[in-house]
Amino acid sequence: MKSAFACALASAVLGLGAAQAETPEVAFNAGVVSDYVFRGASQTGRSAALQGGVDVDWGAFYLGSWASNVDFGDDTDAEIDLYGGYRTEAAGYALDFGAGSYFYVNEPGGADYNYVEFKALASRAIGPATLGAAVYYSFDYFGVDEEAAYVEANAAFIPAAKWTISGAVGHQWLDVSGDYATWNLGAAYALTDQLALDVRYHDMDSPQAEDRVTAGLKFNF
């Protein structure tokens, strides 16, 4: 699956050259969160995480990388993501098609944490609100699971300058572990043009999980 992802990224780069895409634009981000939560589940044992990434855009195409420390109760130290895709518009909808490869540093032998996931996203702005939906699919998911799918509906609303209220409801299907639903709701405040504070409530319907409130600062430059 990793080789398939590499081929997809190579095809994207070749497509960019053939289309004589505009000059690449590079953006960086860094942040800290009180708990790294992914689809309702803590990735850091309810502890804080330092995170950062880089994104490169060539017109409608993009590539990026992002990393965070993690704590699964074993020797795994960090998650490193590599991703790419294509953005376009149709009938007033913003569309995003892509794939991501997720690597875990110092994963134990046989853990099989690394995986590749494909995605399709759509969203539409309606006044101060944006409504969206997303579908993710993996042929060989994290850990013991093989096929996995995640579907999400999300929304964001700007009630006033510098404020954004957003939330999402999703369902994760897993072929070995139990399926579950998850949701989050929070608010972000732009402290400056580059720095934002986000406070968010997360929950999921798994008996092994607990609801939680997280806070995070993200700096874009």
Strand percentage: over 45%
* Main β-sheet description: 12 strands, antiparallel, barrel
How far from one another are the termini? 32 Å
Number of strands: 14
Radius of gyration: 18 Å
- Low-confidence stretches at least 5 residues in length (pLDDT < 50)? 1-21
Percentage of helical residues?
A: under 10%
Notes on the protein architecture:
- With 221 residues, the protein is mainly beta.
- Helix content is 8%, strand content 60%.
- It is built from one helix and 14 strands.
- The chain has one helix spanning 2-18, and strands at 25-33, 37-38, 41-42, 49-58, 61-69, 78-90, 93-105, 115-126, 129-138, 148-157, 163-174, 180-190, 195-204, 212-220.
- Strands 1-4-5-6-7-8-9-10-11-12-13-14 form a twelve-stranded antiparallel β-barrel. A two-stranded antiparallel sheet has the order 2-3.
- A hairpin with an 8-residue loop joins strand 5 and strand 6.
- The longest helix is centred in the N-terminal third of the chain and has 17 residues, at 2-18.
- Mean pLDDT is 91; it is low at 1-21.
Furnish the topology, listing elements before pairings:
Elements: H1 2-18, E1 25-33, E2 37-38, E3 41-42, E4 49-58, E5 61-69, E6 78-90, E7 93-105, E8 115-126, E9 129-138, E10 148-157, E11 163-174, E12 180-190, E13 195-204, E14 212-220
Antiparallel strand pairs: 1-4, 1-14, 2-3, 4-5, 5-6, 6-7, 7-8, 8-9, 9-10, 10-11, 11-12, 12-13, 13-14
Brief overview:
This protein is mainly beta. 8% of the residues lie in helices and 60% in strands. The protein is built from 1 helix and 14 strands, in the order H-E-E-E-E-E-E-E-E-E-E-E-E-E-E.
